[in-house]
Amino acid sequence: MSIHQHLPALQVVVPMLIAPLVILMRGRGLAWAMATATSVMAFIIAVSLTNAVVEAGSVSYAMGSWQAPYGIELRVTAFSALLLLIVTAASTITLLFGKQSIDSQIEQHRQPMFYAAWLLALAGLVGIVVAGDAFNIFVFMEVSSLASYILIAAGPNRQAMPSVFKYLVMGTIGATFYLIGVGLIYMMTGTLNLADMEVRLQEVHDLKPIVVAAGFITVGLALKAAVFPLHVWLPNSYTYAPHMVTAFFAACATKVSLFVLLRFEFLVFQPNLVDYAGQFTAFLIPLAVIGILFASGVALFETHLKRLLAYSSVAQVGYILLGASMATAAGLTAGIMHMFNHALAKGALFLAIACLATQVSNLRLNKLGGIARKMPWTMAAFVVGGLSLVGIPGTAGFISKWLLISAVLEKGTLGIFLVVAVLASSLMAVVYFWRIVEVAYFGDAPADGLTDGLTEGLTEQPVLQEAPKWMLFGTWFVALANIYYGLNPSLPLLLSSQAASNLLGQLP
């Protein structure tokens, strides 16, 4: 058996086994080097698995050679491969180019624990994506969540603690709801393997417990994915987390929960519950539209840069769900494609914010007047990420929004209303993005200086300069990726269309 056949297991095992070893790395920079090397290895494995999926359609691995449904199965499909690329790339880029930001926010003696938690979060997220059974999804969900609480609370801002507590409570409720739903399905089918579950549900005559399970699982995963109105934990968590942690989680965390939600909805519930597909669509479309408009509206009035983009993320989750609620190949392709493109846009934006934070301590808009004149390359990368978020032609964000508009227009009169909602949200995104650009490029520096909070006790304001070159290089790498995939979207589009076909292939 070649090592390539073990790649699904190695995707999870490598970061999970290296995590405790990182704690022992007490030398300066050793913990970062080991964590970064591990993340790079995870990304290489994800690329290899993607190539295998493109060639073979899917990759299955039986842990301990115990075949499913009796043994633990790891399965990588086109949908899984796309999420693996997002998660491992987000981790690798933020670690590789973010050391200076992490050093400035995490004390040296705490860094080994910080990087160990990072690898556990990575292992948990990729474990959720490759797990083929419902219980191991729960196990990896808890691994990633517990590590996430540590990472968010690790920064110097004490306001992160109440944010983490709210995140912990909401995350625990979500995980409990999910577990109750899985327990009900297990009670009726006697299996935890998702593929076997879909088959055995066809033999279940009393479907009332399954309907209840669908409710618990949908609500639980919606909490994890920050679906409106269950998003209350997300804005503060993104705002007060260390900057590189925000960049990592903003790119992938909610998308992994959406991945699990769509798998259950389309592979387990819709093929087996009468009229469930219609109810799913009827319930989700208004929820997605309200979430898009509400979160975009709140972002218009936010004054803190990270909090503004956090509410923007809630709106983008609405875009993904709107595509999924169409329950068509075009809609699902658009929603899944937007997962990839939103990861690119938000990755560039939060990396640019991390660059800004190397020179300024206060990220409120009224403290960033004229910052683009001092940090032109940083703000230029921020603008590229913002253009992709808005959906300007030539950027990755345009591709998925165009696909989404094309998909909703298939709904006739309802589709016209949905297009109006999408365009209204995009216009609001233009407005709140322009607020940032206007202040950064045309605003005057505040009277107390751009570096408010960093200059206490100094008689002169320090001279602002560009962000460290290595961080800037990583930020521009992601920013240019938004343009590259806007001009050549073949790979994510191929994986998204295959993922949509796989999900819909189980429907009657």
Describe this structure in words.
The chain has 20 helices and two strands. With 508 residues, it is mostly helical. Helix 7 (160-189) packs antiparallel against helix 9, helix 7 packs across helix 10 and helix 14 packs antiparallel against helix 19. The chain is globular, with a radius of gyration of 22 Å. Mean pLDDT is 86; it is low at 451-461.
Outline the secondary-structure elements.
Blueprint: H1 7-22, H2 30-56, E1 59-62, E2 73-76, H3 78-97, H4 99-105, H5 111-130, H6 134-153, H7 160-189, H8 194-200, H9 208-224, H10 234-240, H11 243-269, H12 276-301, H13 305-325, H14 329-357, H15 371-374, H16 376-390, H17 396-408, H18 413-442, H19 469-487, H20 490-504
Antiparallel strand pairs: 1-2
Q: How do you describe this structure in short?
A:
The protein is mainly α and 508 residues long. It contains 20 helices and two strands. The protein has a domain at 275-454 and 464-499.
